Amino acid sequence: MLRVLSVILTLTLLLSCGAESKKTVAKEEATKPAVESILLSDFEDSSKELITYAGPQSKVTAVYSTEKAKSGKQSAKVTHQTKDWAGALITVDEGKGDWTGMKTFRMWVYGSNSKASFNIDLEDAKKEQFRYTITDDFEGWKEFVIPLSEFKWRTDWQASDALLNKKYDYPMMTVQFCTATLGNFTLYFDDIVIDSK
Fold first, then answer.
1. 112-170: pLDDT as tens digits
2. DSSP secondary structure string for all residues of 41-86
3. N or C: which end of the chain has fewer CB within 10 A?
4. For residue 182, which of 58, 76, 51, 63 has the smallest C-alpha distance?
5. Residue 106 burial by CB count (10 A; 0-12/13-18/19+): exposed, middle or buried?
6. CA of 134: how far to CAs of 129, 142, 172, 176, 195, in Å?
């Protein structure tokens, strides 16, 4: 009788462990990204609009340029004459906005050591924005590898119709790859990628 009870207990424990193991695997599969990386833009498709905006005292231009390119034939050239606020952005293409399981934002920037600061802003499905600030203290091409967790919820401004919950809500909508409050400078941008590493 005791032997029978022992066998039953052992089988129960094994089945329980197996069920927990399956739950763990299912959870890992649920958070695993469908792809390892998502190319948001390599700025080779000149038909995709580079959108700019500026305050009354500022001017910003964003154009496709063959002057400098990290890869391919062209990059995005952004020129700022900023006294209040201005920026340039791209919209995230349909099918590229679900960043579930992704960890890192990667972007190449060609700097001129202007010492000007600029921001990378990510806008989610509910119009909420998250920011990372970079200083142009380098010359030539430099890759920025930024954990998505290091983009901080913007405290200076959020859209009046944004639904604020301080977390990413997918799909992501825009990447504002050069916003600034002060400064006169020109930067080039190339190969914006989100990846799972």
1. 999 999 999 999 999 999 999 999 999 999 999 999 999 999 999 999 999 999 999 99
2. E-S--TTS--EEEE-TT-EEEEEEESS--SSSS-EEEEEEEESS-E
3. N
4. 58
5. middle
6. 16, 12, 21, 13, 20
Q: How does DSSP assign 125-141, residue by residue?
A: TTS-EEEEEEE---EEE
Confidence band, pLDDT 50/70/90 cuts, at residue 32: low
Name residue, tokens 């910003």. Answer: 60
Residues near 14 by Cβ (< 8 Å), separated by ≥ 6? Answer: none
The pLDDT tens digits for 54-96 are 999 999 999 999 999 999 999 999 999 999 999 999 999 999 9
Residue pair 101/83 in contact by the 8 Å Cβ criterion: no
Cα separation of 178 and 58, whole Å? 14
Q: What are the counts of helices (DSSP H) followed by strands (DSSP E) for the chain? A: 1, 12
Interval 100-121: pLDDT, tens? 999 999 999 999 999 999 999 9
Calpha distance 156→166 (Å, rounded): 14
37-195: which CATH topology?
A: Jelly Rolls (2.60.120)
Number of neighbouring beta carbons within 10 Å of residue 158 = 14
